[in-house]
């Protein structure tokens, strides 16, 4: 469903000039790259991430616009080369602002399709996502972002398949002319993968199990869980076109049957706008 709709939007976007090109590069650290259950040994990993995106925008009607973005991302890992990946994605979004008042929200409907290619033979996947979005100014310095989403991923191995539903809220605060601070929370319900040596309870409740091809001797386990993600981020503009971006995410998942994990993911880098 998503692919024909996005392709139908291409002629509209092709008639519009590119409004922005983004490029980013960052280094990061994940203190639980295998999503090991609490109480079990954890593996810390460092990574280098880079990406580039081109966005197009065109008005369709009063208060209604179309935005199309194509993006390419890559990630290299320090120790686990099988996790090295190259991602490509296309997203179309209809944006509606039904008035011109300061507090008038901007509503959006977005569709995303993407491909993820890993050195691991099990993880290559195709994904799609639908999102309902909201952006609302609270004050001249504080704005609210929210979304509801559902996503699907089909992988070479069923253990890395997923179906997720959830929502997200974030506050952006322009704390100083060049400094933006962000506080966010995301909730997900659906498939989560943990890698390790699952016990009897986890095996009995697993949706899929397979020996992993990156972490030797360990098993990948897919299970249904509730996941909570907290985000703290800061962006400092060095120039109008270049900013430093620092992020910290806390992830906690709980299946309710003796499989629970948490992880901290931090990154810092540069974002350029052309």
Q: Could you explain how this protein is built, in words?
A:
This protein is mainly beta. The chain has helices at 2-14, 200-205; strands at residues 18-30, 45-61, 64-77, 85-96, 106-118, 125-137, 142-155, 162-176, 179-196, 208-211, 219-239, 242-254, 260-273. It has a twelve-stranded antiparallel β-barrel with strand order 1-2-3-4-5-6-7-8-9-11-12-13. Strand 12 (242-254) and strand 13 (260-273) form a beta hairpin. The longest helix is centred in the first third of the chain and has 13 residues, at 2-14. The two termini are 32 Å apart.
Could you list the spans in which at least 5 consecutive residues all have pLDDT below 50?
none
Overall mean confidence score, pLDDT: 91
N-to-C series of helices and strands:
HEEEEEEEEEHEEEE
What would you report as the Rg, rounded to the nearest angstrom?
20 Å
Based on secondary structure, the structural category is: mainly beta
| Helical fraction | under 10%
Tell me the distance between the termini. Answer: 32 Å
Number of helices: 2
Q: How many extended strands?
A: 13
Give the spatial strand order of the biggest sheet.
1-2-3-4-5-6-7-8-9-11-12-13
Name the quaternary structure.
Answer: single chain
Strand content: over 45%
């Amino acid at each position: 469903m998503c692919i024909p709709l996005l392709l139908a939007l291409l002629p509209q976007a092709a008639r519009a000039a590119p409004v922005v090109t983004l490029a980013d590069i960052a280094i990061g650290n994940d203190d639980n790259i295998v999503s090991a259950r609490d109480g079990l040994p954890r593996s810390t990993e460092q990574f280098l991430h880079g990406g580039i995106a081109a966005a197009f925008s065109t008005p369709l009607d009063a208060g209604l616009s179309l935005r199309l973005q194509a993006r390419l991302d890559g990630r290299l890992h320090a120790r686990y080369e099988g996790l090295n990946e190259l991602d490509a994605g296309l997203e179309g979004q209809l944006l509606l602002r039904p008035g011109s008042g300061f507090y008038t929200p901007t509503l959006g409907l977005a569709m995303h399709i993407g491909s993820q290619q890993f050195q691991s033979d099990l993880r290559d996947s195709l994904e799609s996502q639908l999102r309902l979005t909201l952006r609302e100014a609270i004050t001249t310095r504080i704005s609210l972002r929210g979304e509801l989403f559902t996503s699907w991923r089909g992988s070479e191995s069923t253990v890395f398949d997923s179906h997720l539903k959830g929502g997200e809220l974030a506050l952006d605060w322009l704390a100083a002319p060049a400094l933006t601070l962000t506080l966010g929370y995301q909730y997900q319900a659906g498939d989560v993968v943990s890698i390790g040596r699952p016990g009897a309870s986890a095996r009995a409740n697993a949706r899929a199990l397979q020996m992993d091809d990156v972490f030797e001797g360990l098993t990948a386990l897919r299970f249904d869980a509730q996941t909570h993600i907290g985000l703290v981020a800061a962006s400092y503009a060095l120039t109008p076109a270049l900013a430093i971006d620092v992020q910290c995410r806390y992830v906690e998942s709980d299946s309710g049957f003796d499989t629970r994990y948490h992880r901290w993911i931090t990154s810092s880098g540069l974002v350029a706008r052309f």
